[in-house]
């Protein structure tokens, strides 16, 4: 008579106790808790990345605008508007259909030249402040039928850049 060869591992499998419903439920609960923690960390990383991206983009726009103001001839009526446009639109003369970056307005940007005397202390100063960031998770809450609130908003830090005014007035110092 030929008898099938049975490996030791299959003997154990045949004699192993079947999982109880309680053990299956425990595994499900552990999986849900792990997934919830992972999702919270993942969404938190997205939020922090978004805040860093927006802040760094505004810093770069502010640097470009202050640099533009420092190397171009200053006109007290047009230059502040042109520098503000550099921050908001990335150009001094935006198209009519242009929208400002991250929902900023001209009220969020201040431009000054505190000491316009062509001395070493003559500087162009550009500041961006009062902008509001709405967190990504607030949008998820609203899409799922919940009521998003203003506590999911963050008022950004003030960004200020200054550079010496580099255009001479034509006279020798």
Structural topology:
Blueprint: H1 8-15, H2 21-71, H3 79-89, E1 109-112, E2 123-128, E3 132-134, H4 136-143, E4 153-155, E5 159-164
Antiparallel strand pairs: 1-2, 2-5, 3-4
Helix pairs in contact: 2-3
Task: Describe this structure as you would to a colleague.
The protein has 173 residues and is of the alpha+beta class. The chain is built from 4 helices and 5 strands, in the order H-H-H-E-E-E-H-E-E. The protein has helices at 8-15, 21-71, 79-89, 136-143, and strands at 109-112, 123-128, 132-134, 153-155, 159-164. The longest helix has 51 residues, at 21-71. The mean pLDDT is 83.
Give the structure's gist in a few sentences.
The chain is an alpha+beta fold and 173 residues long.
- Unreliable spans are none
Oligomer: single chain
How many structural domains does the protein architecture include?
1
Average pLDDT level: 83
Features:
173 residues; alpha+beta; two-stranded antiparallel sheet; elongated
């Amino acid at each position: 008579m030929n008898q099938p060869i049975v490996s030791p591992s299959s003997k154990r499998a045949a004699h192993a106790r079947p999982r109880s419903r309680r053990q299956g439920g425990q595994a499900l609960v552990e999986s849900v808790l792990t997934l919830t923690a992972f999702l919270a960390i993942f969404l938190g990383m997205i939020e922090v990345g978004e805040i860093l991206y927006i802040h760094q983009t505004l810093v770069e726009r502010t640097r470009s605008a202050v640099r533009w103001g420092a190397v171009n001839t200053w006109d007290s009526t047009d230059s502040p508007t042109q520098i503000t446009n550099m921050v908001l639109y990335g150009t001094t003369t935006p198209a009519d259909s242009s929208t400002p970056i991250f929902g900023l307005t001209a009220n969020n940007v201040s431009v000054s030249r505190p000491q316009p005397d062509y001395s070493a202390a003559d500087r162009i100063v550009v500041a961006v402040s009062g902008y509001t960031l709405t967190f990504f998770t607030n949008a998820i809450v609203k899409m799922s039928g919940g009521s998003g609130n203003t506590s999911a908003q963050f008022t950004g830090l003030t960004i200020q850049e200054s550079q010496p005014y580099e255009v001479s007035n034509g006279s020798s110092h």
